[in-house]
Amino acid sequence: MEEKPVHIDFANLSNLTQLWQSYGARTLFEGEQLQLRMSMSWPNRVWADMAKPLSETSLGQIANNAPDTALFPIWPAMKQNGSAAPQETVDALLRSSRDWQPAFQHTAMALQLDKQ
Predict the structure, then answer these.
(1) How many whole angstroms separate alpha carbon 52 and alpha carbon 112?
(2) Exposure letters 104-114 (e unless 16+ CB within 10 A, then b)
């Protein structure tokens, strides 16, 4: 059986959330359109399932269920092949919201080792 290759965008985000979970995490909220998890210690993040795109409704649920001090990462939607797709709707919602403010931007980097 041939394994399907994992796209670097999906792999990076999966590794990051697995690290956060290894430090202890619990489910904060679970609904049809949103599963929200919260780390119990470092790095003090609240995050949503990558497989489900964020919406105005889910952002409202996050705001209602997450602590005021929580840092919530916004990552791109994942395409079928595991690559990242822009979430312009979420970006626009965040820019126009007085409730959500960006704290920082994290950029993942990858180096193609077969090119070295």
Answers:
(1) 28
(2) eeeeeeeeeee
Q: What is the three-state SS of 10-38?
A: HHHHHHHHHHHHHCCEEEEEECCCCEEEE
| Both tokens assigned to 105 | 């931007």
Helix (H, G, I), strand (E, B) or coil at 77: strand
Give the global pTM: 0.69
Residue 30 bridge partners (DSSP): 35
Q: Please, what's the b/e burial string for 25-46 (b: 16 or more CB within 10 A of its CB; e: otherwise)?
A: beebbeeeebbbbbbeeeeebb
65 CB neighbour count, 10 Å cutoff: 16
pLDDT tens digits, residue range 59-71?
Answer: 788 888 888 888 8
Rounded CA-CA distance 5/97 in Å is 38
How many other CB atoms are found less than 10 A from the CB of residue 78?
Answer: 19
7-16 pLDDT per residue, tens: 777 788 888 8
Report the sign of the C-alpha dihedral through residues 106, 67, 20, 15, in that order: negative
